[in-house]
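We modelled the chain as a single entity of 190 amino acids. Its sequence is:
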Amino acid sequence: MSTSVLDMSMSLDGYIADPNDYLGGEDGERLHHWSAPDGQSGQLSAPARQFADEIIATGAVVAGRRTAELMDHWGGDHHGVPVFVPSHRPPGPAARWGYPLVTYVADGIESAMAQAKAAAGDRNVLVHGAYTAQRALAAGVLDEVQIHQIPVLLGGGHRLFDVLPSQIELEIVQVIDTPEATHIRYRVRR
């Protein structure tokens, strides 16, 4: 059975992007430095390889409209799997005509997640976007949260969990600690 997993890098003070939608630092990618190849060997670290493999192995994606548009819908190809975008507004021209794997879902996060899980089969559904994650948690359709906690304080920007309907209990499933990040995977308690 498919599991929906939010996978996000986050600063210690809870930000997933700076005020300009960059990922922090002088190069705009500080929150993703942990996933870059090693400068000397050119290889990914073992944890970075594990998480990259998990993302490639997903069967579908649910992404918020803002995230999807900022990423130009990943050029219509998020590792060859369908992308479902919950939105009350119709898609722009690229997503409407040029990206056959991108589907805009007008009837809510529950429907978008159900369609993504059906498309994913027994593989996981990758969830992108803070607003979408918050809506999925509120609707009870997000199964797991994987946070790559980066040892940096951005001091401002876009928070991952800005607005939640109530307290949500999580259970720690896995912790991998590296010098670049602490990777924590949680299961959402129901």
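As a brief sanity check on the tokenised model: The mean pLDDT is 89. The first helix runs from residue 46 to 56.
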